[in-house]
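Customer escalation, tier 2.

The customer says the design service returned an amino acid string that "doesn't look like it belongs to this structure." They asked us to rerun it and document both sides in this ticket. The original structure tokens are below, unchanged.
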């Protein structure tokens, strides 16, 4: 036995240890990369007296957090000069990441994720150009491998609506000179075309996902409004044939909702269902604008939703109907979308935000229990990202992906003893309390210090290699296009909204 990871509480996620799966004065016995046993520390210590003890009664042991949707941005868009805006507007602006090295950016992202106790993530690749597509993918994948994190690595692709939802109509509305410049600058895809895409997917699929590999391949088409029917059918076929997972941005924004109602007379979810795209291997990132029928369809197809509440606030997307997802039995994960509320990763804070955003006015029933939010950010996310029972829970046979949380900031100077550890983590925990992080039985971070990554060298390299993005010129092409994009989007909002949640009254 290599380690006994010890804590005042061990949150296993196993129902046989009660509704929160907690063992008091417990430990996790780790051999190689596997959890061999969980139980009382005293019992395990006498079974495995030679194992190195990590932790003490000051710590709580929890499964590693799963960030089920993010884009591998180490430095945030704000750090690189951007400001939050409505999603369609911010993605339309200049690319603040242009001056950042692909490998270092992702490695830095891994560093900050590990510091917040994230052991597994989905990387939703964001391409820079078709010319560098494969090289960027290889560099980013190399960064995850070097970091030691577990990753479901998603290959992105899009083949329509590169500027806004309804490119032809939008371009036709512009004066000629502006139209030509806009089409030239923004009209082409930044991703590989389908042939190159599937070639890359097959190559990577063969290289990834071995038994000892902490990476697995995902297909991540950008979204239904950015992908043609033919492309999505091809991706669906490829995923089924090769046993790959799919994640797709779906109904993140109000404008995506109206695009589908206008163009197809139905919601994006119904459109995807009719393509036979939705299945248990598919997760929908965001789902803010899913309606009642969409939620029922998602649940019936066994597809999952990954909830990204911080990003949805920052990018003015809205508040996803989390408790309706939960009530309908939709499988759930949680993600930071590289836009966490405090501009640095913190899954415990994200759980707290998710919990508080569902507290809509009034005394109505139906709130999603905190333990289920915690589950979405651990075992639920692991399952959504295709890892099944490999990680996300602490049980014999699972991989040792776990976190030691320092309980002092949570319980000092006093915490009523009947508060459960899971609820205390969601109320009072945060990235700052993360002490030790283990993936696959390997300690990546201990006592607040990186073990595998050379933090000093990484920071130095990141600073050295950044090329600052130029400031946007208000009278440049972007400045002239932005008001037109806003008008175009707003002028097409003819379908009335009947919200799930009512926050105030203008009447
Ligand atoms: Zn995203």
């Amino acid at each position: 036995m290599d380690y006994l990871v010890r804590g005042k509480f061990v949150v296993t996620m196993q129902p046989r240890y009660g509704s929160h799966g907690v063992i008091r004065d417990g430990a996790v016995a780790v051999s190689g990369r596997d959890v061999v046993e969980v139980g009382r520390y005293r019992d395990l210590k006498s079974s495995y007296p030679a194992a190195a003890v990590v932790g003490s009664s000051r710590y709580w042991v929890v499964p590693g957090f799963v960030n089920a949707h993010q884009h591998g941005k180490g430095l945030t868009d704000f750090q690189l000069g951007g400001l939050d805006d409505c999603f369609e507007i911010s993605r339309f602006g200049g690319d603040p990441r242009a001056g950042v090295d692909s490998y270092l950016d992702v490695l830095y992202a891994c560093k900050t994720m590990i510091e917040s106790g994230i052991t597994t993530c989905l990387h939703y690749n964001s391409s820079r150009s078709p010319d560098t597509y494969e090289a960027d993918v290889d560099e980013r994948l190399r960064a995850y491998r070097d970091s030691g994190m577990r990753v479901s690595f998603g290959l992105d692709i899009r083949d329509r609506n590169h500027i806004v939802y309804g490119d032809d109509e939008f371009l036709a509305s512009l004066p000629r000179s502006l139209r030509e410049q806009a089409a030239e600058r923004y009209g082409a895809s930044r991703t590989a075309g389908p042939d190159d895409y599937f070639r890359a997917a097959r190559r990577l699929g063969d290289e990834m996902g071995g038994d000892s590999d902490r990476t697995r391949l995902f297909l991540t088409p950008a979204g239904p409004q950015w992908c043609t029917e033919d492309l999505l059918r091809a991706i669906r076929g490829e995923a089924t044939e090769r046993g790959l997972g799919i994640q797709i941005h779906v109904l993140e924004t109000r404008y995506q909702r109206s695009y589908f109602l206008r163009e197809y007379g139905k919601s994006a979810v119904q459109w995807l269902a009719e393509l036979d795209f939705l299945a248990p291997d598919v997760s929908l990132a965001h789902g803010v604008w899913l309606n009642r029928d969409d939620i029922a369809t998602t649940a019936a197809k066994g597809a999952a939703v990954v909830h990204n509440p911080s990003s949805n606030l920052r990018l003015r997307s809205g508040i996803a109907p989390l408790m309706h997802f939960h009530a309908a039995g939709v499988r759930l994960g949680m993600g930071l979308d590289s836009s966490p509320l405090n501009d640095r990763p913190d899954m415990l804070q994200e759980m707290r935000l998710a919990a508080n955003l569902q507290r809509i006015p009034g005394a109505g029933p139906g709130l999603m229990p905190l333990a289920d939010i915690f589950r979405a950010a651990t075992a639920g996310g692991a399952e959504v990202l295709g890892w099944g029972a490999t990680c996300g829970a602490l049980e014999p046979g699972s991989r040792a992906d776990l976190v030691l949380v320092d309980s002092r900031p949570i319980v000092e100077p006093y915490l009523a003893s009947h508060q459960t550890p899971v609820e205390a983590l969601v109320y009072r925990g945060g990235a700052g309390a993360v002490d030790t992080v283990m993936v696959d039985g390997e300690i990546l971070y201990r006592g607040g210090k990186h073990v595998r990554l050379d933090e000093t060298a990484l920071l130095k390299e990141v600073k050295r290699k950044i090329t600052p993005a130029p400031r946007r010129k208000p009278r440049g092409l972007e400045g002239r296009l932005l008001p037109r994009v806003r008008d175009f989007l707003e002028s097409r909002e003819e379908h009335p909204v009947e919200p799930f949640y009512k926050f105030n009254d203008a009447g």
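Tier 2 assessment: The sequence is consistent with the input. The chain has two domains: 3-63+395-453, 65-384. The radius of gyration is 23 Å. Sent an explanation to the customer and offered a walkthrough call.
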